Amino acid sequence: MKSATLLTTLSLASTALSTAIPLPIRTNTRPIRLLHKPPLSPPSQGARILSSQSEESTLGGAHLPSPPSGKVASVTATFTIPHASMPVTGPTANNTVGLYAASFHVGIDSFSGLCPNNRFIRAGVDIFWDGTIGGEQTPWVWYQSSPADEDGLGFGNFSAKAGDVVKFVVTGSEVRVENYGNVTCTKGLKARQVGVQRVDGGGLCGGEAAWAVEDFPLAGMPDFPVAFADFGGVVFKNLEVGFGNGTVRRNAEGAGVRDVRLDAQGGRLTDCVVGEGGGSVRCDRVVEE
């Protein structure tokens, strides 16, 4: 019953929004928005969450706690923006007039909700598939600094599309995104487009670096997440964590891992792992049987 209600509600929301905004392909003005809710409070299992978790979570990916010797001051990662498509298995599959979405982001204190007053900074990309207006839509590139930005803000005229390689650098004072286009390697390449925004990192704990996949709710419908898009998989690469003591770490070895798990959408929806040697974080879209 929960799954049927979810599909019906999402179909009605998608139809209503597309009727009000009859755009064939969305641009970075983002007429349909996701509500970028704050990080979850610490889960009951503790700081290190493995993919065998049983409790529900809209958030997946990896988080690397800061060592006693220094707080997290910067987090970097590169990834290829995945294509969004309609799932073909699971309770939310094959809704040809439905709306599906997924979000990918990089941040400081943006995973476990460990920082007092829930201070965090993060930046990322939302992808959409909307059956009422042509299927896959233009991705939305955003950043968020709490508590000043209750929702994500855009990077002005910065644009990106599925298949583009983007690099995010998040610090306590600035968020930077670079778009290298549809390439297989960025070494030696100059970014085609760069977006930079100043942020206020006052109150950050510097307690963790995060590379995440998330199923946010739609803006105006905060009570449940949108139907999770099929995105194949995403790989966060070229990882770098800078610490306040001046040291830099270029891997996520030993990071805690969590999967997106939503019972109404079929259970475990991602398979997230830290790559060998900690050099990458990969999250594949799955449907738990």
How big a fraction of the residues is strand? 35-45%
Biggest sheet architecture: 9 strands, mixed
Average per-residue pLDDT, rounded, comes to 86
* Helix share bin: under 10%
The count of β-strands is 19
Rg calc: 18 Å
- Based on Cα principal axes, name the global outline: globular
State the distance separating the first and last CA atoms: 18 Å
Structural class: mainly beta
Poorly predicted residue ranges? 1-30, 42-52
The count of helical stretches stands at 1
> What is the ordering of alpha helices and beta strands?
HEEEEEEEEEEEEEEEEEEE
Characterization of this structure:
The chain is mainly beta. The chain is 7% helix and 36% strand. The protein has one helix and 19 strands. The strands form three sheets. Strands 1, 3, 4, 5, 6, 7, 11, 12 and 15 form a nine-stranded mixed sheet that branches. The longest helix is centred in the N-terminal third of the chain and has 19 residues, at 2-20. The two termini are 18 Å apart.
